[in-house]
Amino acid sequence: MNYLYEQQVAPGQLIEVADGIMWLTMPLPFELDHINLYLIRTNEGWVVVDTGIGTSKTKALWEEIFSQLDAPISGVIVTHLHPDHIGLAGWIADTFDVPFYMSQTEYFSARAFSAGSSGASKERDKRYFHQAGLDSSLINQLTAGDNKGYSSVVSPVPLSFTRLRHQMTLDLDGQQWQVIIGKGHSPEHACLFNKEKNVLISGDHVLPIITPNIGAYSTEPDANTLKDYLDTLPQFYDLPEDVIVLPAHKLPFVGLHERVEELIAHHNEHIDALLVACQKPQTVVSLLPVMFKRKLGVRNMVFAVAECIAHLNYLINEGKLVRCLNSTGVYEYSAAVKSQLAS
């Protein structure tokens, strides 16, 4: 893999990373401290691809970016529903009164998350964490609050949208962008490929250096999101090997096929390690060190638990693991067939 730059572009600055495509970043208040965003030049203006989280700091940086552009904003594309991608999409789309593009599942999921729990019981969330083996104090910490976290960093989602479908061609004022849907990290993640420019805007589906979070969360605890992800990665082998990949995090790069191979291998390594560990009964909590070698903070615990469960769900669906509730109501996972790997 070859990286096109040695470091991230500074917030508030623009770099033409490919023909007619500007690269910018916005800060994130997390361990992963930035998101890459892109502007596509058309005859009508600039199309925004993803927006950063909805904070006053990000909004001020966007105002700074707008002042540098030689044409108005003519559209907003959101790859998926996560707050760092959709956070200010509604604000930008409605401010400039321009088309808002998103896949259907991502759009309606964003609308649902923006509404919050609407008074629904938290017992299902608590049960999810209890069945994973977390202690009650941590569960209470993770489920505290009013479930308004999403809407606090996401501006109101526009009341209408233009749907992005898998393999459709999105015509941006004569530019042809092929929509490629990936699943697993989010339900219907849109990537964009332009053959003429030889550019893939990969969002979070294909990232360099780090791997996308593939989780089974409390909203659908039995989801087989890892299968979704592994099933939708090989399609990227059909793109040119020398395509310029513009990811949502870390650095733009060339080497798509190699990175897809690495991502598949990464998850297969986790699968093999979990199978070895599950030669004797294990809980999600006891398996976290198998998958994660770093210390997990409270915020990272949510993602780690979900990612571990996603891998375990995959193995259950493949017939390689079985699970049962123990006397304390915690799931224990065991290998369906004892393996030589454990010896």
Structure description:
The protein is 34% helix and 22% strand. With 343 residues, it is an alpha+beta fold. The protein has one domain (2-337): Ribonuclease Z/Hydroxyacylglutathione hydrolase-like (Metallo-beta-lactamase, Chain A). It has a 7-stranded mixed sheet with strand order 1-14-13-12-11-10-9. Strand 4 (34-41) and strand 5 (46-49) form a beta hairpin. Helix 10 crosses helix 11 (298-317). The radius of gyration is 21 Å and the shape is globular.
Topology:
Layout lengths: L1 E2 L11 E4 L2 E7 L6 E8 L4 E4 L6 H13 L4 E5 L5 H4 L2 H8 L3 E4 H12 L7 H10 L3 H7 L6 H4 L9 E3 L4 E4 L2 E8 L6 E6 L4 E5 L21 H8 L11 E4 L5 E2 L1 H22 L6 H8 L6 H20 L3 E5 L5 E5 L8
Quick structural summary:
The chain contains 11 helices and 16 strands. By secondary structure, the chain is an alpha+beta fold.
